[in-house]
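Quick entry, no commentary yet.
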Amino acid sequence: MTDQFNQSDIDAVYRAIAARRDVRHFVPGAIDEALFARLINAAHQAPSVGLMQPWRFIRIRSAAVRQAIVNLVDEERLATAEALGERGSEFMRLKVEGIRECGELLVAALMDRREDYVFGRRTLPEMDLASVACALQNMWLASRAEGLGMGWVSLFDPARLAALLSIPQGGKPVAVVCIGHVEQFYPIPMLEMEGWEKRRKLENLVFVDGWEHKAQAS
């Protein structure tokens, strides 16, 4: 086969996967337009259910709109802390976003009129969201390979963010995406570093021929 990857290419793919991090700490600075074009193109090459390509990306260039998004995230952060109960104060000590500092801010949204697309979604309509997640993961891996950090922020009221950005009825924002330069990448996921959660053992998450109904050890 002429389209096979060589071993160094294969190693680079797995290295990017292992080194990808959800970044919250950025060094201010613009991202080169040609580099940004590569990242957004990587996202657009993602697989999608029925090839519907449900992703829409809104670049936030206005300082006022960026600040409005910060305000929405801050409000949801407080609401999340309240919902967490005993862990609320612990949550409030975490840095949960890098919207203020990142060089490029995007909002990823689901398109409107998704009901027109039935292929692959008749029984699983949420596959449109899975497709957007694939696009974001492509961008995440490409960002890491390019030496940039990326963070996915989901702390916001989708209806209010949709209104802020004039997203049409039926569309839905699903991620505030922060991309930018970093001083260094976290050696392990930040929430693991902060003791919020730990990675589960893979062998406890893989079953054979059906769901294993037993207590799952960590």
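second:
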Amino acid sequence: MRELAQRRGINVTGTPERWQVSFDSVEAVDHITDAGQTRWHANNAGRARKVLLPVVQKLPVDQLPGRINLPTAIASAALLGDLMYARHLQPLRYWNAEAFEEVLLTITHPLHTHTKVDFCQFVRLLLARLHDTWSESQSQAWWPWSMNY
């Protein structure tokens, strides 16, 4: 997963005490330019990272599934957010299930079977943590799908 993220310009280096994340410019990521009335904007392209990365960094390492370590989790979350916007122009708040499924299939396609399971379990954990984070920060919980994922 880290290799796949690195090919898209997402690099995670360092030690457990000091992870460093660097990104190529959002303009460098292959993306569609419009979807219906929505147009690609650099300002929106990196916003999912700003929400996802702090959530991932707060995950207890012992809750990460199988072969997913913290650098892989960080790279995976950033890749997921980048691809949702690059391919569907969907900011995090407006992700829909069909686009999400297409992106997940794209990401898991090159992975080995055991890595797919770990990655999918990580995504499930990430979605649950996002739901919890938004429920705590808003008087009325918002989530685009039911919690039956």
